[in-house]
Structure to design on (187 residues):
């Protein structure tokens, strides 16, 4: 059922669960990791999707997470965010950044064992005639003090995407943070 829901959200068209193919998975081991990368992404699909759970080791209740494409650290990214936390809704955005913001996810001061979840859709990732568009959904519940975010962004580059790096803004991602990359075949 989750694949059906994610499939309908994934590209704006109906995509069946069988349209998703697992490309790679990564789970952060003991001691944490500053980043996780998917490299050598094949050009066999229409879109990509990254799903995961994440927790930061930073000594706060939540921490910022970001991602980059093709190891590009130039100011070639823009993003927009709509956030809700139970007390209100907020919007923000930024242009000419060196990353795409994934929002805030639980960190070291949050209750033990709480992870945030996210889904990143990367549309038309191999099309060399346009900039790349991404859509993200992130959420966390820190015992009633959570947040949900809907974000969009773009990478102002026409190169096909061959690698994705997800990184905690300042600290490390905690052990058991887990990531799965899928290729989506479809219209």
């Amino acid at each position: 059922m989750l694949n059906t829901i994610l499939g309908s959200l994934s590209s704006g068209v109906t995509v069946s669960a069988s349209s998703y193919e697992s490309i790679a998975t990564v789970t952060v081991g003991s001691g944490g990791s500053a980043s996780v990368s998917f490299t050598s992404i094949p050009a066999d699909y229409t879109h990509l999707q990254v799903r995961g759970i994440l927790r930061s080791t930073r000594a706060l209740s939540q921490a910022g997470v970001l991602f980059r494409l093709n190891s590009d650290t130039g100011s070639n990214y823009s993003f927009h965010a709509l956030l809700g936390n139970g007390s209100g809704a907020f919007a923000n955005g930024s242009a000419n950044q060196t990353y795409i913001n994934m929002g805030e996810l639980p960190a070291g001061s949050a209750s033990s064992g709480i992870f945030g979840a996210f889904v990143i859709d990367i549309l038309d990732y191999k099309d060399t005639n346009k900039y790349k568009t991404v859509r993200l959904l992130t959420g966390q519940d820190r015992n009633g003090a959570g947040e949900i975010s809907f974000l969009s962004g773009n990478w102002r580059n026409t190169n096909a995407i061959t690698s994705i790096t997800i990184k905690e803004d300042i600290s490390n991602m905690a052990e058991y943070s887990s990531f799965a990359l899928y290729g989506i075949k479809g219209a």
Remarks:
- Confidence is low (pLDDT under 50) at residues 1-11.
